[in-house]
Recover the amino acids of this structure.
């Protein structure tokens, strides 16, 4: 598939001249509208292909989404422009477009700049959302990188072997030497040491552990040699559960986003119905077909939801991803959204907001 970035850049390069030609009368040379058509066609058809494809798939399943409205609006604007160019007066040499508010029949009006601009704007929003996802994914990968890659397993006969972390099983005994990361969650059987748990708890002072103490994978053994029995491996470790928490927070939906989805399910059919009602009303009022169709197309175009489906998920992705980078684990989008009501933060112990490093002031 074509990368979204390439689709966006190509569409933007083609759409900018269309916008300039359509909005600045001084640039409108003889037969400029045909050049605008040549430039706008690939933007609407090829650039907007992801929206058209999604709208078609949803239509086959009897569903209407924001992609449906985007596809309908851009196709209607482009389709009307084709009609105006080939069958109306818009294709005449020397045709000019200005932005006067006087009534017109509409047959000499084209909407190529609208179809192009809406397509590019939506592509830009999707690209920014995809970038936010990649950034959040990098934060998640960095979180998972905190875990150990290898472990020293002790065989029943007392000998040792170096294995990949994936080979550890519950009940295995493994040895953790000073400076090594603890391979997985477990219980200390032998040895006494201090374990740096800052990556989980934020505490800058290592915690003392001995026989019977529970330790977590990814924490660092700062003191003596430990023999640990594995109690949780793979997805059952605390580190894996934290990563899963971040994933759920990024893929979940906040209350405002769920509300937007419910509104969209009603909004799209209502807009289509309003466009048809507008067409019928103008025809019943005695207007010609061109003017009535222009009004109906305008309803579809102004209803294109450029921001409704993009702002909230992008904010959630960036917020949870940046939080993970800073060591703030957000349980879900509802939690992130509810922070607007927070007026007091209570910290239960020292070490939570301190670094544990001395600084020379004077």
């Amino acid at each position: 598939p074509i990368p979204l970035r390439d689709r966006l850049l190509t569409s933007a390069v083609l759409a900018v001249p269309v916008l300039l030609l359509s909005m600045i009368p001084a640039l409108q040379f003889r037969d400029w509208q045909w050049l605008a058509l040549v430039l706008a066609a690939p933007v609407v058809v090829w650039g907007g292909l992801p929206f058209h494809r999604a709208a078609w798939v949803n239509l086959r399943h009897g569903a209407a989404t924001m992609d449906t409205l985007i596809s309908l609006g851009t196709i209607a604007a482009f389709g009307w422009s084709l009609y105006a160019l080939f069958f109306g007066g818009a294709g005449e040499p020397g045709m000019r477009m200005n932005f006067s508010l006087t009534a017109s029949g509409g047959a000499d009006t084209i909407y190529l700049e609208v179809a192009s601009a809406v397509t590019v704007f939506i592509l830009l929003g999707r690209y920014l959302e995809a970038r936010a996802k990649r950034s959040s994914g990098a934060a998640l990968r960095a979180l998972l990188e905190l875990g150990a890659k290898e472990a020293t397993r002790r065989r029943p006969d007392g000998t040792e072997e170096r294995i990949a972390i994936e080979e550890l099983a519950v009940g295995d005994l493994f040895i953790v030497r000073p400076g090594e990361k603890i391979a997985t969650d477990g219980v200390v059987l032998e040895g006494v040491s201090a374990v740096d748990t800052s990556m989980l708890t934020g505490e800058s002072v290592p915690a003392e552990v001995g026989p019977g103490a529970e330790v977590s994978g990814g924490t660092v053994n700062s003191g003596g040699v430990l023999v640990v029995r594995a109690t949780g491996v793979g997805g059952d470790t605390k580190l894996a559960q934290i990563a899963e928490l971040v994933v759920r927070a990024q893929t979940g939906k906040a209350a405002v986003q769920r509300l937007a989805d419910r509104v969209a399910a009603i909004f799209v059919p209502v807009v289509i119905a309003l466009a048809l009602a507008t067409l019928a009303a103008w025809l019943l009022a005695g207007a010609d077909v061109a003017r009535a169709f222009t009004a109906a197309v305008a309803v579809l175009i102004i209803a294109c939801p450029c921001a409704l489906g993009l702002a909230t998920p992008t904010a959630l992705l960036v917020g949870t991803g940046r939080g993970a980078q800073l060591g703030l684990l957000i349980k879900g989008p509802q939690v992130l959204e509810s922070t607007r009501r927070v007026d007091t933060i209570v910290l239960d112990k020292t070490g939570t907001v301190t670094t544990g490093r001395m600084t020379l002031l004077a």
About this structure: The radius of gyration is 30 Å.
